[in-house]
Amino acid sequence: MPHFIDILSPHYQKLLTSCDRRKIAVNLDIQDLTVNIRNAEQVDQFFASEIKRAIKNCGPNDKITLAQTVDSQSIRISVKNSGRSTLTPEEKNALHAAGYEVRARFGYDTVITFVIER
């Protein structure tokens, strides 16, 4: 099983490059980089799609945060952005249908979270 860092690292490197050009700040809020990930492909797909969405929604001086928390039963992985635009109701419904938690309101950050069992 790959470690979380093995999945995160390539996405993080691409994110840094894209955000540097666009003047978007990048933050990491990671609890455990060494946790084993069973659903590596799903986590990889989550990062690919949600980082792309975050970059699209952000402009200069916005911020994207990649976060992860771990407890005894689950791993919560989130992509948060401070972009000015919010998700449409259709986008929210599609994300919920995919099994993601979504917190998106106009004027506030957008947070999309993928919860996996340990």
Commentary on this structure:
It is built from three helices and five strands; from the N terminus they run H-E-H-E-E-H-E-E. It has a five-stranded mixed β-sheet with strand order 1-2-3-5-4, with helices on one face. The mean pLDDT is 94. The longest helix is centred in the N-terminal third of the chain and has 19 residues, at 4-22. The protein has 118 residues and is α+β, with helices and mostly antiparallel strands. Strand 4 (101-104) and strand 5 (110-117) form a beta hairpin. It is globular and about 35 Å long.
In whole angstroms, how far apart are the ends?
A: 12 Å
What is the helix/strand order? HEHEEHEE
Overall 3D geometry?
globular
Overall mean confidence score, pLDDT:
94
- Beta-strand fraction estimate: 25-35%
**Helix content, binned percent:** 25-40%
Low-pLDDT ranges:
none
SSE map:
Layout: H1 4-22, E1 25-30, H2 40-57, E2 63-70, E3 74-81, H3 89-97, E4 101-104, E5 110-117
Parallel strand pairs: 1-2
Antiparallel strand pairs: 2-3, 3-5, 4-5
Helix pairs in contact: 1-2
How would you sum up this structure in a few lines?
The protein is built from 3 helices and 5 strands. The chain is an alpha+beta fold and about 120 residues long. Helix 1 (about 5-20) packs parallel to helix 2.
